Give the backbone structure.
Amino acid sequence: MLTVKYNLELIWYSQRDENYMLGPQIAHNPERPRRENGTNPDMLQAKLWANPCPFTFRINYLALLYNTPLYDWVQNTYGLLRPEYVVLYSLALVEGGSARDISRTSGFPKNTLSRAIKRLELMGLIETRNKVPGGGRRQALRLSAKGWSMINETRPVFEAQENRMLEALSDGERQILSELMSKVVIAAQDWSGDLPSVAMLNGTAQNEGMAQ
């Protein structure tokens, strides 16, 4: 297997001062941008490079820019809320998935998905639920022909928007990004669902100074 190493170089161009900054950029620069010559500091650049949580900013920022217009379009065009469409999209990827599977992979709570599933059944977009063999109370969910028709109409728009988002990257860079992000996602089970120990220590210290 041939291993190809890519030297990723971040290039930042600031239209304000028309200077190029070439070369690798550090993920976090603690120096806070300041107001200069009567102009406001560049908030985007500050959140990119002067941010103590630079990775989560990048994820959240891109997710908002990607998701907001798409799910607004789905709601305005097809009358579906985001959790409802997430159910359809998930079942298009895994036929016979359960509500628990969708909750675990989407972040939506089970009660939210339960309401979404009931409405999708009423709309005829998913089939009547059946028990999953050996799955206890889990029920297999499947798209109806009407549900597949909606997915086939809408998914190309999601795919096209993702391609637009990644236009700045070469094929090799896309592959590297995909592999790195996959590694972070798989490892999420080790930390998600609770807060770091420092939060517990801070809470204990604050409580110690309060009247009991």
DSSP finds eight helices and four strands in the chain. The two ends are 64 Å apart (CA to CA). The first helix runs from residue 43 to 49.
